[in-house]
Specification:
The chain is an alpha+beta fold and 192 residues long. It has one domain (2-147): 2-Layer Sandwich (Nucleotidyltransferase, domain 5). The protein is 45% helix and 14% strand. It contains six helices and five strands. Strands 1-2-3 form a three-stranded antiparallel sheet, with helices on both faces. Strands 4-5 form a two-stranded parallel ribbon. A hairpin with a 7-residue loop joins strand 1 and strand 2. Helix 1 (43-58) packs parallel to helix 4 (94-108). InterPro entries: RNaseH-like_sf, RNaseH_sf.
């Protein structure tokens, strides 16, 4: 499962859940589920949406036919998403709590669920395939996606940072024109 956010210049986010059958040896997914995450979504939100999407499609149809306990392995390249689901008492929003209910219901039915970290861009075939699908999901229509509070906070931070950079560049340009001094980076020194 993977989620991606594009650049702030052209905001778009997408998520994808690839479902694999552990009984086959090939690396082809059984199902691919893509979804737009919205223009304001941060990468954490896109990752959570991918996990929610994967569990949502996994629940009744795929698990109903198997009689033996099937271990469900959730691989993601988002440490923040893994930590959010590994420490449910630290959750502070209802969206993440709603997603956590899905694996808990599987565990209650005797299906163990494990979250593992899979580093991105290191040649793991299934991870690379998921990353490619997540890139495709960014092109999905972004309108009508509910805004999550994390999305809103990220958008405000981006806007404030952009305004700060524009003001700082304007100040340096005026200083350069007036004094003729080249721009120097701000350095914080502990020396007195």
């Amino acid at each position: 499962m993977d989620g991606q956010s594009s650049s702030p210049a052209e905001p778009a986010s997408g998520s994808v859940a690839l479902l694999y059958d552990y009984t086959t040896a090939n690396d082809a997914p059984v199902e691919v589920h893509r979804a737009a995450a919205g223009r304001l979504a941060c990468s954490y939100r896109a990752e959570c949406l991918a996990i929610e999407n994967g569990f949502g499609h996994l629940m009744p149809p795929c698990l109903g036919t198997s009689q033996s306990p099937t271990r469900i392995l959730v691989a993601t390249d988002s440490l923040s998403a893994i930590e959010a689901f590994r420490c449910p008492l630290a959750m502070r929003d209802r969206v993440t709590e709603a997603i956590l209910i899905m694996p808990l219901s599987l565990v209650k039915r005797g299906r163990p669920v494990e979250f593992i970290f899979s580093p991105s861009h290191c040649g793991i075939p299934r991870n690379e395939a998921t990353d490619e699908e997540a890139t495709i999901s960014i092109s999905l229509p972004q309108e009508g996606i509910p805004i999550w509070h994390v999305d809103f906070l990220t958008a405000v931070k981006r806007l404030c940072w952009k305004e700060f950079q524009e003001e700082a560049e304007g100040a340096y340009t005026a200083r350069q024109a007036f004094v003729g001094v080249a721009r120097t980076p701000f350095l914080i020194s502990s020396q007195k």
